[in-house]
Amino acid sequence: MPSAILEQNERRRAIARLLADRVVNRQAELVELLRAEGYPATQSSVSRDLRDLGAAKLKNGYSLPKPAELGDEESSLQVVAEFVRDIRQTPIRATG
């Protein structure tokens, strides 16, 4: 059984593909497209996914930001963010 994080990442990749392939004007439409492909989705999960993917609602439907050039710092951070769950600062110990 896939983990929730893996399921979420797969759903987000499907959202990116669907938005690249067609015009989607409503979140409910995207929920139905995802469900038709076997991805569990609700309006609230799709809303979070779109926000986290950086999607914008334009006159002609939802659009994702264009991928940055390879080597771009923001692009690198997006790749890392897909795999990082939490970042915590460790206490600094005095040496001596």
Summarize the structure in words.
The chain is mostly helical and 96 residues long. Helices cover 50% and strands 6% of the residues. The protein contains four helices and two strands; from the N terminus they run αααββα. The chain has helices spanning 4-21, 27-36, 43-53, 73-81; strands at residues 56-58, 61-63. A two-stranded antiparallel ribbon has the order 1-2. A hairpin with a 2-residue loop joins strand 1 and strand 2. The longest helix is centred in the N-terminal third of the chain and has 18 residues, at 4-21. It is elongated and about 65 Å long. The chain starts with a helix and ends in a 15-residue tail after the last helix. 10% of the residues are buried.
Q: What secondary-structure arrangement, pairings included, does this model have?
A:
Blueprint: H1 4-21, H2 27-36, H3 43-53, E1 56-58, E2 61-63, H4 73-81
Antiparallel strand pairs: 1-2
Helix pairs in contact: 1-3
How would a textbook summarize the main sheet? 2 strands, antiparallel
Strand content range: 5-15%
Calculate the mean pLDDT score and round it.
84
Helix content: 40-55%
Main β-sheet, spatial strand arrangement: 1-2
> What is the terminal-to-terminal distance?
49 Å
Morphology call? elongated
- Secondary structural class: mainly alpha
Structure, briefly:
By secondary structure, the protein is mainly α. The protein is built from 4 helices and 2 strands; from the N terminus they run αααββα.
